[in-house]
Amino acid sequence: MDPAVALIRTTLNTASLAAPGLAGRAAFELYRHPLRRGRVRTREREVHDGAATRTLRHRGERVAVHLWGDGTRPVLLMHGWRSRASRFADFVPRLRALGLTAVGYDAPGHGDSDGRTATVLDHRAIALRLQEEYGAFEAVIAHSLGVNAAFLALREGLRAGRLAAVAGVSEISWMPAAFCARLGLNATVERELRRRAESGAMFPGIADVRTHFDAARDPGEITLPILVAHDEDDDVVPFAQARRLRAAYGDRLELLATRGLGHRRILVEPTVIDQVIGFLSAGTATKAVPA
């Protein structure tokens, strides 16, 4: 067991017996702030360094934007929690071969960006900001929490031809329980954490957090073709999250179920990348570009 996790578990569970509110506040701070930033992995380095990188300002913070291509026929890449745009490195050459421009960003508190944290509201705002610059997207490829943000953005003005959702979170309300389960926190801490996570403390102005951030709600609002790729052995975001989307969107959603890849390897698995690229190319007029 990770000593840091063991310390957090013991401290918060013990504190909850005498001061549940204090334990809940401490859990909430851990919940909404990444404990570490994802670094560029060795396999990602060449693609990452080949991007044209610039910054935009969001909430007064510097957000890193990475561009692979000249900006025409853009595809938006939306990463997950404690992740970064470089995690999509294996997709970039394939997108470029189709004549598409890959547009990624590191959310606040992630990758090369400033700040300490980002919610799905920040991802949505950045996606819409990038749309102002590059126009409607040919497609969106999202991973993990980025999937939930993608559905939210599509409901609130993001225009795209297709959505490829990999190992995605479909409901925000699932996350406090999952967070507490991973750390071994008791029911008292979970209750206090959920109360804060589903209130204005995290999402100011959102009256019903559970409904507002449910990617499966009102499926008629999102009419583009959807591919969901999810591993049945995902130990971070359970396969049930993919089933919820399939039940909601029916035949408009293609479900690609894998085994043995987990939450992260699925993003670099060649057969999954082949399926995603094939799905995207079916909705675009391909134009090859020089290698």
Textual characterization of the structure:
With 291 residues, this protein is of the alpha/beta class. Helices cover 38% and strands 16% of the residues. It has helices at 3-18, 20-32, 45-49, 92-97, 120-134, 145-155, 175-183, 187-197, 209-212, 240-249, 270-281, and strands at 52-58, 61-68, 74-78, 101-106, 139-143, 163-166, 226-231, 253-258. The chain has an eight-stranded mixed β-sheet with strand order 1-2-4-3-5-6-7-8, with helices on both faces. Helix 1 runs antiparallel to helix 2 (20-32), helix 2 crosses helix 8 and helix 5 (120-134) packs across helix 6. The chain is globular and about 60 Å long.
Largest sheet: 8 strands, mixed
The CATH topology of the largest domain is Rossmann fold
Oligomer: single chain
Work out the strand percent: 15-25%
Indicate how many domains the architecture comprises.
2
- Overall 3D form: globular
**Unreliable residue runs:** 286-291
Helix content: 25-40%
CATH architecture of the largest domain: 3-Layer(aba) Sandwich
